[in-house]
Amino acid sequence: MRVVSLLPSATEIACLVGGHDMLVGRSHECDYPPDPSSHAHLPVLTAPRVTATQPAAIDQQVREALASPQGPQSLYTLFADRLAALAPDVILTQDLCEVCSIDLATVRAVAASLPKPPQIVSLNPQSVEAVLDDILTVGRALDREKSAQDAVVRLRERLYYANEFVNPFDDGPVVAFLEWTDPLFCAGHWTVQLIERAGAQHPWNPTIAKADAGAATGPQSGERLAGKSKRMPDELLVAGQPQHLIICPCGMDLAATRECVDALSLKPWWHQLPAVKNHRVALVDGNQYFNRPGPRLVDAYEWLVGWLQNRPELIPENFTWLDWDNRK
Fold it and tell me: Which DSSP letter does residue 43 get?
């Protein structure tokens, strides 16, 4: 079987379930697992069209592309000739966010033009449970269903273990989670679930129980969903008086995140935040963890519980984060 992955989380999942030897092409963002033999040598099939490097400029280019008079424009280039030459049987892609990776419509159009149209497996998770389900979906598509089931069991065990350190009867502190810094965007989807399950509140975009799900607490917490990340005024962040602040810009590594926070810390309201006053500001590599809906969301949850509940032994050894006060 010949598999192309146009999504970093899908590449991680494919490798997790034992399908690394099936991969014949990847996106420019596929950078994990770190083992070069798994994907680094594969042809790169996509490239970004956004050329800006600063958060405000990136946001402006994205908005202009999506609001084009000719209709929304793709933010990525898909090299159709390269894809056709690989003759894939399966393409792993997504339909969750047109900003984060190549859009499904572009993939479908190119795939339909191939002599032998491949199976398109599009992932669209909006919750922790859906991310785990995606592992099973990829496992079935790659004929690695048993490996996928075993992987999900292991990941669930880690989630349940970390959850044992959370008091379910306490609403917990207010945590602000920023997925973008200029303008501000708060957390959405699975990240809000992780925050609440780690024993905290995220009032800017809280989870809401599905209809007929009751309170949807405890083992039924998967029935509580949050909307996508959304823009919020600076004043709204300050009004929420967060006791903890996590800054994790989508698509940025830790070095770029640090530059973003350097700029953010110059805002006149920065020192009004309780999180800043109480030295509870964390920077996280969003490109690798919270913003990538793959197996390492479990690492993100373990870090979150460890940081919020003062259980450092839960934090994965190689988790990429930085305490703002210890940035030097």
Answer: P
Residue with tokens 């994205």: 62
pLDDT at 131: 97
SS3 303: helix
Ranges of beta strands (E only) in the chain are 3-5, 23-26, 46-48, 76-78, 90-94, 119-123, 175-181, 184-186, 208-209, 224-225, 244-247, 281-284, 321-323
Residue 149 belongs to domain spanning:
3-156
Whether residue 185 sits in one domain with residue 48 = no
- Are 189 and 302 found together in one domain? yes
Strands, E assignment, 213-290: 224-225, 244-247, 281-284
CA 180, chain centre distance (Å): 13
Comparing CA positions, the residue from 315, 247, 309, 233 lying closest to residue 276 is 247
Alpha-helical regions (H) of 30-103: 36-39, 55-66, 80-86
Q: Which residues contact 227 (CB under 8 A, 6 or more apart)?
A: 188, 189, 205
Q: Which of 170, 180, 221 is nearest to 204 (CA)?
A: 180
According to DSSP, residue 44 is labeled B
Domains contained in the chain, number: 2
Instruction: For residue range 19-74, list pLDDT tens digits in order.
Output: 999 999 999 999 998 876 667 789 999 999 999 999 999 999 999 988 888 878 88
The answer to whether 243 touches 269, Cβ cutoff 8 Å, is: no
| Omega prior to 219 cis, within 30 of 0 | no
pTM of the model: 0.95
For residue 328, pLDDT beyond 70: no
- Residues 106 and 204 occupy one common structural domain: no
